[in-house]
Design goal:
The complex is a heterotrimer of chains A (about 325), B (about 260) and C (about 650). Chain A is mainly alpha-helical and about 325 residues long. Chain A is about 75% helix and about 5% strand. Chain A has 13 helices and 2 strands. In chain A, a hairpin with a 2-residue loop joins β1 and β2. In chain B, a hairpin with a 2-residue loop joins β4 and β5. In chain B, α3 packs parallel to α6 and α5 crosses α6. Chain C is globular. Chain C is of the alpha/beta class and about 650 residues long. Chain C has 3 domains: about 250 residues, Rossmann fold (3-Layer(aba) Sandwich), CATH 3.40.50.12780; about 190 residues, Rossmann fold (3-Layer(aba) Sandwich); about 170 residues, GMP Synthetase, Chain A, domain 3. The chains are: A mainly alpha (about 325), B alpha/beta (about 260), C alpha/beta (about 650).
Chain lengths: ~325, ~260, ~650
């Protein structure tokens, strides 16, 4: 009976007993979730527009952040490093379209998937070769991002919000809003939706698939860069970060592979869920829930709702 | 009309997939301003021919000249930007988008304003958007589909989807319009509407039309000239009357219950 | 609420519509008068603009030779330009003659010829083509005017003029010479109450249609009465979507708007009416019962496809509305918890539902033309739509009776409208005298005399009676009410209406006069039955096929049995239960003459046309063969033939009153 009490009652007693801690935990989960959502978002964009299951999405995030930091360490001013990093993401998009997508168009999906595997290791190798393998610190101040924390005395305790986390949440929201505007109101946004819907028809009205692919990969690259900066500001920038990027997979399974809202909701659920799990249920199993809870959730979804919360039933494509 | 200027010239085109020959040394032309039908039994290579014309397929042999310019390989979007629009046998619409958005995609090549303004719906981009919207509204009015303007096309009945698809093609202001079985699966009334639209497009906008259609009655009524394909070969080419009385055609196609 | 012009002064100065228009241009020039959705955008004209436009058109018409007493036909859908041409015609003291836009060329030729029309105004190419096809028969017709230019540029006919050109020329001429403006003012002022204001051709349930002449003074007076009755003002808005040639549109939209100064919105086209309704959100609304019925059917179908939770919520709150809604609408005493429960329902179900239907802003809604099913009527009232019935006729310029607010019941058509005198003749026929009463049938003194009693009452041809509350109940057409061989009263429409309440049944035609028992022919509603078939995995290729499906027969048989149960509950009707029925293999259609243009069934014609089926209904056979001609949309004819099954239905024992009625 005691174990049942510990699982089903005690955590909630704790939550009610110390609401400030609960708020703090929820906030941290939220920030983590927002960043997961961004990674998943880049993934969904590419999957929708080109049907490619982009294994390299996580690495693109690390690579982008590494490029920025590496250039900065080599003496390039932060703002210029940022612009150059964006430029490099554009070159990457061009290269992927030319070298990977164009030759492999009309090949089975698994071929493209394997190609993104190759891309992953190419980026790791390239990043280590150019910038070295040791962890680097994100130049938060030089990039104009805030430091320190905001403390609130509420709910009978102290809730402390890191300014960088607030910035992350704001930037992520702005990005999502920007992407939504882009999709709804621009010619290219409409073209993107068209391509996602029906390739052949899109071609017939004069939409160039190649151009769309470059735009999508570039957009995904920018999202990756933003995510990389935010993660990097919270810890160091190194290829160890790619572990985090793997969290995109459970997020996608939850949200559905083709749904932008799904990516966002899925990200938030995973982010908040794993923080709550770690804090309130973690002690029961000796901690470490954070590293596997997302996968268990994803497994449950695969069993009961494989198309995800918002997705279409196309998961057999993977 | 068949004596007019040649808009599209197909010369000795052959197309094969692996070992299968879909089109075998076919030549014909389309004169500016005419309605040209391509008919033939199933598997005769009609759709393949359209796919060659708008750049989906690249023929192994032969040449195609459009507007007097000969090209070896052309991409679909190049074909589109040169004024070739098309519809598909099995309706290829953007199912998640509304009728209006579908038709607006037909304006893709005509929109030029920069992204930033488009996102903010402001400045010159707004004016441009309004102008294109106006154009699309004229098409909506023309095709009498006002009532489904905001409906996601995936939910529409088949006949209306075909009409929306025609609208999207018209939004491109094409010089050459390729219609792949525009009346397949339609009832009598819908066929009559569609025929009327095709004739109107041809007469009022001067659009040249090439169409594939199985309903022989419709084809004979609508077209100025007909080319008949069978197993990838051209077996006849001429006015409806000439084609109707051609023995090879009668044997191959008209004689067969279809 | 702002002022309503001279609410119901019985001797107002503005006794013609052009005078009313002038008044509004001065008194509320900036208020919206007309709206129209074109190319996806709502355009609005205020009263001042409309007045200027109508004057321009009037001058243009004058230059084409239109003068006092001339007839101008107007053919087309509800377009501002056509309404304006109508007023412009009246401005010249000429007489507009609206013609049903869906009339085939022959019907059109009859009206235009009969009315001695001089100029015909058409909406578009379709109508122009029709007019041109009959032009050589019409000796008086000098010009054809048109609104929409599309497709008409290349026409060679020289007497074909665009309304926009005519108006432009008129405007230019008026602007150039002040004397012309003054001349026009003189014509407007010279308009008199006894000028013929309009000629409306009756739909002709029997025989050829007749031109009902209505006078300007009586029309404006009648409209004044009802505007006051329903408190309409220049803040009101209505959707003009009913045929221009029908008295309902001319009265409800045109006449009342011109009296009240309210705004008429014209839909984009016939197919977009439901969307336009939602976008405009009218405050005053009129629809025949079949429109309300079709909407209810659509709601029910949507709910059947909805998720379980949504459906449960809907069912729950609709039950609450059924119990309390009408009482709340009638401002009766309702316990507080029920009131709160209803308010929650308003928030969750009725409000969104009304919004989806475009009913959110409606203050007053009317239905008329046919009896409305009690359940249907109560449904709309229970969700808070102030739906009322009226009983009217073209000969009365619409209103004979109407429900006053607060005294509304589904089974009556209301009390006499303001200043209307009603009496029931010895044979049960309803007779009336009304402010808007028609002057005569055009060129037909004989028919005019037939329609009137020696002391000046109009015979309606409807059988009815006043109930204890002084409200009128209409039974049926007087001549249609018959008797079975055993003497039981047989009111076919009464039975048909009960059947038509079921969403699966679109039309019903009952037979029984001088017969041994009652039988019906049924037209299924393809939308509802098709949806039902889809859910039940029944596939079909044609209307004929689904109409003959045995399971569809079972479905309909269930409905017929229920109607029998409800008939059995009424002492006078228990003997007239349905004994046998069949489902028609084709939809009844106005183009085939089976329905009138206002969609009423023509029982006699149907009995003749489907004689083998009627014979089958009464000779006990289980199958009858039928072969009948149909008209396709393009006017071509074809033949539908097939076998039709006939089914026997059990009779319910006559019950005491109080059991559930269908």
């Amino acid at each position: 009976m005691h174990i049942l009490y510990l699982i089903f009652v005690d955590p909630f007693v704790q939550m009610a007993g110390a609401p400030d801690l609960l708020v703090q935990t929820l906030w941290e989960g939220l920030v983590g979730g927002v960043l997961y959502a961004l990674i998943a978002l880049g993934f969904v964009l590419i999957f929708k527009a080109s049907g490619v299951f982009n294994f390299a999405q996580g690495i693109m995030m690390v690579f982008a952040a590494l490029t920025l930091v590496g250039l900065y360490e080599k003496g390039v001013p932060a703002w210029l490093a940022l612009i150059l990093a964006i430029g490099i993401m554009y070159l990457l998009a061009l290269a992927v379209e030319r070298v990977v997508l164009r030759p492999l168009v009309n090949q089975p999906d698994i071929m493209l998937f394997m190609a993104t595997f190759g891309l992953t290791y190419l980026l790791i190798g390239l990043g280590e070769f150019v910038f070295g393998g040791n962890p680097k610190e994100m130049p938060v101040a030089a990039l104009g991002l805030p430091k320190g924390s905001l403390d609130f005395k509420i709910l009978g305790g102290l809730v402390s919000l890191q300014k960088i986390d607030i910035a992350a949440a704001v930037i992520a929201s702005a990005m999502v809003a920007g992407l939504a505007l882009f999709f709804q109101h621009t010619r290219i946004g409409r073209a993107l939706r068209a391509v996602a819907d029906d390739h052949q028809a899109a071609l017939s009205v004069g939409i160039s698939l190649n151009q769309i692919w470059v735009i999508v990969w570039f957009t995904a690259g920018i999202v990756a860069l933003a995510t990389g900066i935010m993660w990097g500001a919270r810890s160091d920038v190194s290829f160890a970060l790619q572990v985090i990027s793997l969290k995109a997979l459970p997020v996608l399974i939850l949200g559905g592979f083709t749904s932008v809202p799904g990516a966002i909701v899925g990200g938030l659920i995973i982010g908040i869920g794993e923080k709550l799990g770690e804090f309130y249920w973690g002690p029961l199993v000796g901690g470490g829930i954070e590293s596997w809870l997302a996968y268990v959730l994803a497994l449950a979804f695969l069993l009961f709702k494989p198309e995800g919360l918002f997705g279409e039933k196309i998961i057999e494509r993977i | 009309m068949s004596g007019g200027e040649i808009l599209l010239d197909v010369e000795h085109v052959s197309l094969a997939f692996g070992g299968v020959r879909a089109i075998n040394d076919v030549s014909f032309n389309i004169a500016r301003g005419e309605i040209r039908a391509i008919i033939g039994p199933n598997g005769a290579g009609k759709t393949s021919m359209l796919n060659v014309i708008n750049g989906f397929y690249h023929p192994q042999h032969g040449r195609i000249s459009f507007h007097g310019k000969t090209r070896a390989r052309m991409k679909p979007y190049e074909a589109a930007s040169q004024g070739i629009a098309r519809t598909f046998q099995n309706v290829a619409l953007f199912k998640g988008m509304t009728t209006l958005d579908n038709i607006l995609t037909g304006r893709s090549l005509k929109m030029r304003r920069n992204l930033f303004w488009q996102m903010l719906r402001h400045g010159p981009a707004l004016a441009e958007e309004i102008e294109h919207r106006k154009f699309c509204e004229e098409i909506i009015d023309f095709l009498e589909i006002e009532h489904i303007r905001k409906a996601p096309v995936g939910t529409l009945p088949y006949g209306l989807q075909k009409r929306v698809e025609l609208g999207r093609a018209l939004a491109m202001e094409p010089t050459l319009l390729l219609l792949d079985e525009p009346m397949a699966g339609m009832n009598l009334e819908e066929k009559q509407d569609m025929s009327r639209f095709i004739v109107d497009v041809n007469q009022h906008f001067g659009t040249t039309i090439a169409l594939i259609e199985h309903d022989i009655g419709v084809v004979m009524d609508l077209s100025d000239r007909i080319v008949v394909l069978e197993y990838g070969h051209k077996i006849a080419d001429g006015t409806p009357d000439e084609v109707k009385s051609d023995q090879k055609v009668i044997d191959a196609y008209l004689g067969v219950a279809h | 609420m702002t002022d309503s012009p001279q609410a119901s002064g019985r001797d107002a100065v503005e006794d013609t519509f052009p005078k009313l228009l002038r008044l509004h241009a001065q008194a509320r020039g900036d208020r919206p008068a007309f709206r129209h959705k074109d190319r996806g955008i709502w355009k609005t004209w205020n009263w001042r603009e409309v007045y200027a436009q109508v004057r321009a058109l009037a001058h243009g018409l004058k230059t084409l030779g239109v003068g006092e007493g001339d007839k101008v036909a107007i053919v087309g859908a509800n377009r501002p330009m056509l309404y304006w041409t109508l007023t412009a015609t009246q401005m010249l003291r000429a007489v507009p003659v609206p013609v049903y836009a869906d009339a085939v060329a022959d019907e059109m030729a009859f009206v235009i010829e009969n009315a001695d029309v001089k100029i015909a105004v058409a909406q578009d190419q379709e109508q122009v083509d029709k007019l041109l096809s009959i032009a050589d028969r019409l000796k008086f017709l000098s010009h054809i005017l048109y609104d929409e230019e599309r497709g008409l540029r290349d026409y060679a006919e020289t007497n074909l003029v665009a309304l926009s050109d005519l108006a432009a020329a008129g405007r230019a001429a008026l602007g150039a010479e002040a004397s012309l403006e003054r001349a026009l003012d003189v014509v407007i002022d010279s308009g008199r109450a006894d000028d013929a204001s309009i000629m409306l051709y009756t739909s002709g349930t029997t025989g050829r249609s007749k031109g009902v002449v209505l006078s300007a003074g009586r029309s404006t007076q009648a409209a004044r009465d009802t505007v006051a009755f329903d408190h309409l003002t220049d803040r009101d808005e209505q959707l003009g979507y009913l045929p221009l040639a029908w008295v309902g549109d001319h009265y409800m939209n045109y006449a009342q708007a011109f009296v009240a100064g309210s705004c008429i919105a014209c839909p984009e086209n016939a197919d977009t009416v439901s969307q336009d309704l939602r976008e405009i959100g009218p405050t005053f609304y009129f629809a025949p019962p079949r429109v309300f019925e079709a909407q209810l059917t659509r709601i029910m179908i949507r709910m059947e496809d909805a998720g379980a939770l949504k459906r449960k919520m809907f069912d729950h709150f609709i039950a609450v509305a059924r119990k309390w809604g009408e009482r709340i609408l009638n401002r009766q005493r309702v316990p507080l918890p029920a009131r709160l429960h209803y308010m929650l329902g308003e928030m969750l179900v009725y409000g969104p539902l009304k919004n989806a239907l475009g009913f959110s802003r409606i203050r007053v809604a009317y239905t008329a033309g046919e009896a409305i099913g009690g359940e249907l009527f109560s449904f709309y009232r229970s969700i808070g739509l102030n739906l009322k019935q009226l009983y009217g006729q073209t000969e009365a310029f619409l209103y004979v009776t109407a429900h006053p607010d607060g005294a509304i019941r589904a089974d009556t058509v209301g009390a006499p409208a303001p200043h209307v005198e009603i009496r029931i003749a010895d044979d049960g026929e309803v007779q009336f005298k009304s402010p808007g009463q028609f002057v005569c049938y055009y060129k037909d003194p004989e028919k005019t005399a037939e329609a009137l009693t020696p002391d000046g009452f109009v015979k309606t041809g409807d059988a009815g009676f006043f109930d204890d509350d002084g409200q009128l109940r209409i039974l049926d057409r007087a001549k249609d009410v018959g008797k079975l061989v055993d003497g039981t009263i047989f009111a076919p429409k009464y039975i048909e209406n009960k059947l038509k309440f079921f969403s699966n049944i679109k039309e019903a035609v009952a037979f029984g006069d001088r017969r041994d028992f009652v039988t019906v022919m049924i037209n299924i509603d393809l939308t509802a039955v098709g949806n039902w078939a889809e859910r039940n995995g029944i596939s079909y290729a044609s209307y004929q096929e689904i109409a003959g499906n045995p399971r569809v027969y079972d479905l309909i048989a269930g409905h017929v049995e229920e109607v029998n149960r409800s008939l059995a509950a009424e002492p006078r009707m228990a003997g007239a239960q349905i004994r046998r029925f069949l489902i028609l293999p084709k939809e009844l259609d106005a183009d085939d003459g089976e329905l009138t243009r206002t969609q009423k069934v023509r029982r006699g014609f149907i009995a003749e046309r489907y004689a083998p089926l009627v014979k089958g209904l009464y000779d006990g056979s289980e199958i009858a063969d039928i072969s009948t001609e149909v008209t396709f949309e393009d006017g071509r004819k074809g033949v539908i033939s097939g076998r039709v099954k006939i089914v026997d239905i059990g009779q319910s024992p006559a019950l005491r009153a109080g059991s559930r009625a269908a």
